[in-house]
Amino acid sequence: MNRHSISQHGGNMNNFPEKTCDISRLVRHPKLVSAALEGNKTEQRRDGIYAYPDEEFELDGVVFIVTALKRQNIGDMSDVDAQAEGYASMEAYKSVILNMHKGMEWKGDAKVWVHCFERKR
């Protein structure tokens, strides 16, 4: 079953760098898909650009729209940021990321792209 689909509106109007991955790969883990569907996940950090503002994607038949794309140092994340990612705390977020990426070193100055999104109204 294809859980993700895309509709493009306007492309790269804000002069962001080129995408490094397709929007269909932005939110993939079943727990994170569920968190987004429940309204508990409104951000996804990635090391590359997966979507531009105003792009739409679908999770289990529900359409979401990317509302913002911004750069952030991973070390500047707060508990509030981790909660927007669908985790209870920054410590929980960091633990999951390090477990998913075996051998990864947590470098506070590493830059990530923050994809902000919401359900389309």
From TrEMBL:
Annotated protein name in UniProt: ASCH domain-containing protein
Organism field: Mariprofundus aestuarium
